[in-house]
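1st attempt posting a full record on here, be nice pls
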Amino acid sequence: MTAHLKTLADLRAGRLAGATHLDLRHCELDEFPREIFALADTLATLDLSSNRLRALPDDLPRLRALRTLFCSANPFETLPAVLGQCTRLDIVGFKANAIRHVPPESIPASLRWLILSDNRIEALPETLGDCRRLMKLALAGNRLARLPAGIARCERLELLRLSANRFERLEHALPDGLLALPRLTWLAFAGNPFNAAQEARALAATPIAHVPWHELQLGELLGEGASGHIWSARWHPAAGGDRPVAVKLFKGAVTSDGLPGSEMAACIAADVHAHVIGVAGRIDGHPQGAQGLVMGLIPPQYRSLAGPPSLASCTRDVYAPDARFTPAQARAIARGAGDALAHLHAQGLMHGDFYAHNLLVDDQAHALLGDFGAASFLPEGDPGRVEALTRIDRRALDVLVDELARRTDAGAR
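the predicted structure (as tokens):
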């Protein structure tokens, strides 16, 4: 019996009295287990992802303590209207369902974080603007052609994902009211019809080596992100010699940030810079047709500056408790990161996910910026929006500088 099925068995046997967290993923549920209501006074987090649910019960608000609800990878076609009656909900996730319709009454005004990525949503209600606490909104991989005007009222919004939708015009995806939001700091909008030609031109115009798959010998798995796996490898060019490299193989599906193809275009367009993880080549001839990139192998002394945001921190990275920097280290990291960002802007890109967890730093405080999953091409012929978009990226740099300053020992060198 899996751990999640054991949890379900314990729930039904009444052995979970007083539980605050309940994980019922992969339990083959067709209906909402009524036994959950025995935890009405204590249950704060409920995860029903990867089941076969199509509806939630009308009396869901009986779960008075519920603040976090995940229902990803279920066959919901409509975002349940009953959610709007759950007035304490803070985080709601319905990623990778089959949602087409989002009723106006389905969005509780209390939300801080809403995840609707990888669905079939064509329109969002104006009531989204009533979410004055909303900080994080994930909408990548839908069928949106416009945003509701009410989104301009979400003045606390910090992170927004609009990639891989159906925005035909730039102003429909990035209206003036959205770009004027005072706290918007992390924004992705690649992989839409209005910028598809720009991405294709960037791929075609950028000179880059094409690396046959048979010239690569994969080693150990170095890591896995939302868009793919990164492996250590040896590259044996036909011309002779070999060298250590890293290979990123894309998963080929929409991620929380956007499309792998958009990420590949941005990686290649980023070109070479001392503070950017560079691309050495594009993989051809993978036996399963996977897309991939060959990159420089980062020396082992480099490490992530921080961990990604948690459910509690929402939009802020999580640093190790003992993370401390000298003023010289903090200045060097900030300067290198700022140089990387300025380089991307000069290449016609915004990073969109400029975070400490996407920076690798060595003992000499040399910083390398990576992860272009949320990167987007700056629009052509619209200097006003270009300035607004680069200002959003620079706001993320300001956040990084502040985080470093808070962890700097003033008396150290």
